[in-house]
Amino acid sequence: MESDEGATLMPPPPRDPNKAPIENTLEVTEMSVLGKDIFTNTRKAWHPPGARGIYGGTVIAQCLAAAQKTVPDAFLVHSCHCYFLLAGAGTVPILFHVERVRDGRYFIGTVVRIHRLWRFPVEPEDVPGLAPPVRRQLEQVAEFEGMGSGVDEWAGRPVVGMQVSLDHSIYFHEPLRVQADDWLFTEMESPWAGDGRGVVLQRIFAKDGTLLATCVQEGVVRLKQPKAEGSSKL
C-alpha cells in the first residue's frame, strides 16, 4: 500500500464534520510563507487504482478552490479552461500558484499554474487482483462505458495503451445551483474522434432538469500495438 508520508506539505487536519465529504477531500491550504497566492493540497491527492497518475478532476477542482480564495466573495466562477502537460504523482505535494491577470468590474481573470496530470486505464488482467469493492466499481464503469458486462468481454476488446486528457473547459451556467454532493444528471456525446484523439461534449443537469454546466474535453487515446519479433527499439 502506498504511504501518505510526504504527500502534503503539512499534516492534514481533522476532517470538518460541517462540510460535505467532497469538500474535505478537495480542500486547499494557503501557503503565505512561500509567497502571495500560493496554495497546496490539504490532503493527499487521489490516485485511482491501477492508474499511473493522480486523478485530473480532483486537481481541476482544487485549482478552482485556490482561484476562488483570491477573489471577492461576490464573484462566482463562470468558466475554467485547463491544459494537462505532464503526469502527477500522489506521493509529493502539489503547489497551486494563482496569478491575478485582470481585476475588472464585472469579471476577474486568474491563471493557476500546476504540473503533472495523467490518467491511465486499469488493464483487464489487473482487475482480479483488486479488492472486491473496487473490482465491482470498475466492472460497473466498464459496462457503463460500453466496454462489456464482464472482465472477459472487456479483455477481448482492443487494449488501450494510453488515455490522456489534453484540455478541458467547463462553463458554469448556474454556479450557485451546483452541489457536488447531490445527485446530478450528465449527458455525454463524442462528435468526433480520429488520429488518436477524441472530443467529448458533456452537459450537467440538476435533478429538476436545470442545465448547470457545459463541458468540452479533448483527449488522446492510443491502442497498444503488438511488438514485431526482432524489431529494434530505435
Automatic annotation (TrEMBL):
InterPro entries: ACOT8-like_C (IPR049450), Acyl-CoA_hotdog (IPR042171), Acyl_CoA_thio (IPR003703), HotDog_dom_sf (IPR029069). Residues 1-21 are annotated as: Disordered. Residues 106-221 form the Acyl-CoA thioesterase-like C-terminal domain. Pfam families: 4HBT_3C (PF20789). CDD domains: Thioesterase_II_repeat1 (cd03444), Thioesterase_II_repeat2 (cd03445). GO terms for biological process: acyl-CoA metabolic process; fatty acid catabolic process. GO terms for molecular function: fatty acyl-CoA hydrolase activity. Gene3D superfamilies: Acyl-CoA thioesterase, double hotdog domain (2.40.160.210), Hotdog Thioesterase (3.10.129.10). GO terms for cellular component: peroxisomal matrix. PANTHER family: ACYL-COA THIOESTERASE, ACYL-COENZYME A THIOESTERASE 8. Belongs to the C/M/P thioester hydrolase family. This is Acyl-CoA thioesterase-like C-terminal domain-containing protein. It comes from Hirsutella minnesotensis 3608.
